[in-house]
Amino acid sequence: MSRTVRLFLVATVITTALVVAFAAGVAMTYLLMHDRASAASQEHDLGVFWEAWDLVERVFYGDLPDNQRLEWGVIRGALGTLDDPHTSFLEPEPRQREKEALSGRFGGIGAYVTQAEDGRIVLEPMPDLPAERAGVRKGDTLLQVDDLEIGSGMSTEDVIARVRGEIGTVVRLKLLHEGETEPVTVEITREEIPSPTVEWRMLDEPAGTGYIRLTLFSDRTDKELRQALDELKDQGMTQLVLDLRGNGGGLRDSAVDVAGEFLSGGPVLLQVEKGGKEQTFEAGNGGKFKDGKLVVLVDGGTASASEIVAGALQDRGRAVLVGEQTYGKGSVQQVFDLSDGSSVHITYAEWLTPNRRQITGVGLTPDFEAGITDDDRSNGRDPQLDRAIEWLKGN
Q1: 222-225: long-range contacts at Cβ-Cβ below 8 A with a sequence spacing of 24 or more?
Q2: Considering only CA atoms, which of 134, 139, 141, 131 is closest in space to residue 193?
Q3: What pLDDT sits at residue 41?
Q4: Which residue ranges form the domains of the chain, and what is each CATH number?
Q5: What is the pTM of this model?
Q6: Which residues are part of the catalytic machinery?
Q7: Is residue 45 scored above 90 in pLDDT?
Q8: Distance between CA 275 and CA 121 in Å, rounded?
């Protein structure tokens, strides 16, 4: 690749990053005109870069990246100069997985993919989904996906990326059933596979206590939550434990909807953008559980959209928080998809609780602190949940 071509490549990447980073608030036309006007000076500006890269090409002991990986590396490096861990770049495959998680559904076969201790990739079909209907059995060893043989060095993430795909397309799997010696090949048409984000059940005590755990805030979370609340109320629920531990966040609008299930209108969060512009997001009036006693479990993994919900319920006097200090991520990222399927996530605003408490770098302090150890988990104990139940009994 000639120096001129490489220069054009890097200049294009940096121009793209600049356009994306300022797209939310800076006139696009000005940026484009400015970049054209400064193109002539790019070679001088990037002189040290090419000095360093020329040395890499001359002396590096190993394979050099192709143009695409070099391009991605330049974007990551440019974003890294912003000193913001949440302004980031995602390659196409991780971006696709992120989209699927936030949508709450994906195209797949309906099987869990795990790695055995000996390195084998093992499948377990989900009931009544395409994999089970095609003859996949629990414990099957996956030998091949389409024309790709599954090697011992492949991760479950690599395999999942191959098995998933567009709804309606066909994937061919070569399997070895447990206890058999001859492999079999099955063809499976991918379907829309739901990815639940809400779990619920009634607790044994005190009477009338429901338990709901949210694992993520996706497009489908509020719908699932409403179903959970309806079913628990049908079983006699009068008070609730809402578990947000380990929930790293998700979609802002989903968090506002979820908080709204426990509030009668009013503010859920304040969003402060560059230049001091503020926007208030409020709950609707149709919440399904606006009156009964409510405890929210939180810990160091409770972050972002989870902190929106927990902070709103705490500020509004609707719930008490039990557990540990939350993560402290109140910054807001806007996601821009790039032409090759990759994306940049750019911080453009900050969230505050209804009482204007800052979340970023601080987190939320629980009303009642309670820890949990690895020994507790391995022995099936949950002192944080126990503390929540103790509060419900006492109030």
Answers
A1: 222/254, 222/257, 222/258, 222/261, 224/196, 224/197, 224/198, 225/198, 225/258, 225/261
A2: 131
A3: 44
A4: 3-83 (no CATH), 105-194 (2.30.42.10), 198-394 (3.90.226.10)
A5: 0.70
A6: 304, 315, 329
A7: no
A8: 52
